[in-house]
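Minimal example, chain plus N-acetyl naphthylalanine.
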Amino acid sequence: MKIAGVELLRVAMPLVAPFRTSFGTETTRDILLVRAVTADAEGWGECVAMSSPRYSSEYVDAAADVLRRFLVPALLAAEPPGAHAVADLLAPFKGHRMAKAALETAVLDAELRAAGRSFARELGAVRDRVPCGVSVGIMDSIPALLDAVGGYLAEGYLRIKLKIEPGWDVEPVRAVRERYGDDVLLQVDANTAYTLADAGQLARLDPFDLLLIEQPLDEDDVLGHAELARLVRTPVCLDESIGSARDAAAAIRLGACRVVNVKPGRVGGYLEARRIHDVCAARGVAVWCGGMLETGLGRAANVALAALPGFTLPGDTSASGRYYAADITEPFVLDDGHLPVPALPGLGVAPLPGRLAEVTTAAEWLTG
Ligand code: NPQ
Ligand code: MG
């Protein structure tokens, strides 16, 4: 597979509202896009790293640097037979899974567009639409939270995820249950904000019949999650702790999680994400597709992944409008709580040139 060159683009996307998590508040999404150009097609990959290393150790300037200096030169020098060879080619460079994922996705998109095959078909999707949940940030007050949740339920979202942190956990959950009832599919995400010493406080969530509690403890603390899982009734779900299919198998064996949030960027790409799906399915562990405030490009691939058979819980695959007033692709719009799985070749969507130009802040073209 001859890759003529790779373009790195930086785009700045204003969020419709600030998004607060236990690790900080974001108002603008600073995104790195990767465009791989071959003789037959161009392909797109979206790097999900944030501007600062708060979700994980990766951040967008580091991703751009490692792509520019190491990953793209290795790819251009090697002429791999196809996208399935890219991960092995990049494996000598440690870590940087979000950067690797973006590059592999761009190459895979180019390959699939040229072959006329969709991501959904390539990954093994079995549905043509996926049920969608929404992630709701930490708010300044309970009334503000109830307004936000009510708005999302009215839009049709089929599952609500509340971001939590110490001081914002039992009361918001209780308030949502009291206002919107026990039938709402409800879960929480702590983004590592607790320690095992907080097990008693987290057990106070038990009566609210949550689907899961996501990543309560440190990324490195898989054993701690196994301990916690014995102290709380709510199923423990891992996000930040799972960087590979091997990590998933180990966490499951340890009893650290009954559910896994699959984020392709976090695990080095869609092909490794599919392997996590397979590992979890073989062990009866439910998976769902996470989100990193992607544009329509990343969202398209996430929706394709979420259509695999083991994705039995609604994902954070929200509509474009959850985050962006104007997406860089045709927007994903919720229909009866679902998003359509793109069926056209590759990602099935492409940047709208005018819109992309409006939000692009920098671009560099890399050749071999
Ligand atoms: C999670 N995502 O599941 C993440 C974390 C997260 C949808 O809850 C800018 C870029 C802000 C990426 C905030 C959701 C972000 C971000 C939160 C990711 O843990
Ligand atoms: Mg999470």
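Residues 121-340 form a domain with the TIM Barrel fold (CATH 3.20.20.120). The chain has two domains: 3-116+351-366, 121-340.
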